[in-house]
Each structure stands twice: as C-alpha cells, then as structure tokens.
Amino acid sequence: MSQKELTVESRSGSGKVAARQLRRAGKLPAVIYGHGETPVQLTVDAKAFSDLIAHSGTHVLLNLKGAANESAVIKKIERHPVKGIPATIDFQRVSLNERIHAKVAIILENEPLDVKTGDGLLVQSLHEIDIEALPAEMPEHITVDISHLVLDGPAVHIGEITVPAGITVLTPGDEAIAAVNKPKKVDIDAPLDEADAAIEAEGLAKAEEAAAENTVATEEVVAEPVAEVEISPEAAALESKGE
Is pTM, for the whole model, over 0.90? Predict the structure, then answer.
C-alpha cells in the first residue's frame, strides 16, 4: 500500500447546513475514528482529496498532517448521488504494527487463448478479495493469472492463487474468480413467439398512428429529488451532538 500525505483541518460546525457550506467553499466534511479514541471532526480540501484518489486509489496509507498528525486509511467515502463526487469521508486510525482488513480489487492478466480466438467468453464472477496485512504491506490489488483457462473448463478459484508474503486471504478458497464460457448465439432469423409478436404489432400500430397524425412522440423526464447522503454511525453520532 502506497503512503501519501494529506493535510486536514479541524471542524467545529456540524449538521447538513454546515456541510453544504463547506462544500461550497471547496472543502469536504470528514471524521477520523478508531483505536478506542474519540472521533474527531475534520475538513479536507476537496480538490486535493479527489486528486489523491485519482492517482493513488482508495487503498492508500495516509500520513495525516495538520489538525490530526497520525496514520490512517480511507474507511468509507460517501458520494453525491447524482454527481458521483466525494461528499463525506471516514478515516480510520491505524498502527503500522497492527494488521488491518481490507477488500482489494482482483486484476486478471494473460488472456486465455480461447478468448483471443473469439471461441470463448471470459466471465469474471469475483472482483474483490478480502485480505489482512500490515498497513505498509497491503497491496492495492491482487493479480490473477488466467492464461490456463480453457473453453468450458474449470474456473480459477481463490484457493489456487498466490499472494505476496505477509498477506492472509480471508475470502473462502472455493470462491470462483473467473471462467471461460461458450458465447450465447442469437438466431436473428428465428420466428417470434406470441409475446414478442404482440409487442411488435403494438409498436407498429402506434408508429403508424403517430405518422398519420404527423406528430412526434416524446418522453417526459421527471426530475427525481436528490437523495440524502448517508454517513457512518460514528459520524452520525458526532453530527447529532453538534446540532
């Protein structure tokens, strides 16, 4: 796991109004907790945090500077339901001498021959793996070689992969990761069943009716209300105290 520095500031205000004001100012509300210590409310520069996760990902060991001078990992990121950008951040304190648990991505490498030729379709059924390691030894992802997979052959399972020293795999060994299956063929000349035929006939009738009236059908788009961003129980406890 790579180590990066991130500057944080203390935060006194709480509640939705205070959080909105922070975001308008280019900052994000955050909280750090863990190790039996009192949770502390923080703020983080929104651009600095977005740049950090864009270049280093979310599996990164942080050296927090400023209002909190300690090591931490990103425990949770709540995102805006429409824009998809970070809205609130949970940091978890870590000790460099204590093992931590995390889910990291599974990256497949070496495309199987049957997939290259187009005879087979690669199906990945597991995209993350649960592991435990010291913070400095936590990888950003686990790479799995799939060059040996063949069409309609056995899948590669968690128990078959090799991980770096110092890492304990917590995902059950019988979990399948990927396999090569036969692609499904669609017969475009196959006759329509009764349901498909009825749908096609109805659509054709509506099209003819619209053409006769020289009108264009439009679909009304109703704007849904923006969903509220959920926060962790630890952050919620702090928010309720501040209100």
Answer: no
